[in-house]
Amino acid sequence: MFMRLVQVRIKPESQPDFQRLYEDVIMAKLQITPGCLYAGLVRSIRRADEGMSLTIWDTRQHADAYEKSGVFQMMIEKSKPFFSDASEWRVQLTKDLQLEYAPVAQEPVVKSYAHATEAGTGPTVPWHASFLYVRIVSMLVQPEKIAEFKSIYENDVLPLLRSVPGCLYVYLVENVERKDEWLSVSIWNSKEDADHYEQSGAFDKLKAKLESTFSPLYQWKVGLDKELGKQAVTSEDVAVSGYSVVVGRSFKQSG
Predict the structure, then answer these.
(1) Within the chain, where are the H helices?
(2) What Rg do the C-alpha atoms of the chain give, in angstroms?
(3) What is the pLDDT of residues 89-121, one digit of tens each?
């Protein structure tokens, strides 16, 4: 299994039109694309203009072939009128040592993840349902401790999540470009189910089991937290993001 995330920012007033484009055009193309098992548009809970196209593929080769075929770029061009006008600013030093500020247009960010392990609590996930909630936990793991990390995840994290009410499916995936980045992607019946799991303290207990495998900067943060008695913030903290499924469709069952 191969997962592909395309992060986009859509103008709030254009979201209904973009949703129709995604459902009528983009999903229709993906449905006839070899190897594509699922396509869904999800929206961030925290930022109304932030969303992702989440696609699941039989193999990485199928996903790469789709991107190289030109169809992906064609879909991006069709989507551009709906993208947010917001831009980042790049600051650079010119040859005569003057500071130069230049706007950088925001393009979709594409990230690809290879399947590591997965587990479901039922026979199938009703991916077509619009009420589903997607929870993504991003972690940076020390390369020499990846085997230990995966072992803890499979032996401790998965069994507990299988028993949590409302948790339908869990994927552990590895960033194919950045080998130290791992995502735990869980699919829930509702946001309320996921919130209840996090508020119960179970998430913190599982994170504590994995902490010894996280990046050196994260280890420093943990040590500082204990020393100062308050939390420090680093660029390598465990990040938790939540998304509601706007529209999604399974095209076929794998295996």
Answers:
(1) 15-21, 27-31, 60-68, 71-79, 146-152, 158-163, 191-199, 202-210, 216-228
(2) 20
(3) 444 444 444 544 444 445 677 777 786 676 655
Q: How much is the pTM?
A: 0.74
The mean pLDDT of 66-81, rounded to a whole number, is: 91
Segment 126-163, tens digit of pLDDT: 555 556 899 998 888 988 999 999 999 999 999 898 88
Q: What is the predicted pLDDT for the residue at 235?
A: 40
Residue for token pair 């039922």:
122
Structural domains in the chain plus CATH codes: 2-84+107-250 (3.30.70.100)
**Per-residue pLDDT tens over the stretch 206-243:** 988 998 898 765 444 444 444 434 444 344 456 788 88
- Asked if 46 contacts 239 with a C-beta cutoff of 8 angstroms, the reply is no
Instruction: Measure the CA–CA gap between 117 and 158, rounded to whole angstroms.
Output: 9
Contacts of residue 87, Cβ cutoff 8 Å, sequence gap at least 6: 103, 104, 105, 106
Are 179 and 156 in contact, with CB atoms under 8 Å apart? no
Please work out, in degrees rounded to the nearest 5, the angle formed at the alpha carbon of residue 89 by the alpha carbons of 84 and 90.
Answer: 135
- How far CA 223 is from CA of 190, 217, 220, in Å, comes to 35, 10, 5
Contact (Cβ atoms closer than 8 angstroms) between residue 76 and residue 53: no
Answer for the pair 186, 167: CB distance below 8 angstroms, yes or no.
yes
**Token pair for 189:** 């019946």
Among positive and negative, which fits the CA dihedral 195, 200, 204, 209?
Answer: negative
| Helix ranges, 155-215 (H) | 158-163, 191-199, 202-210
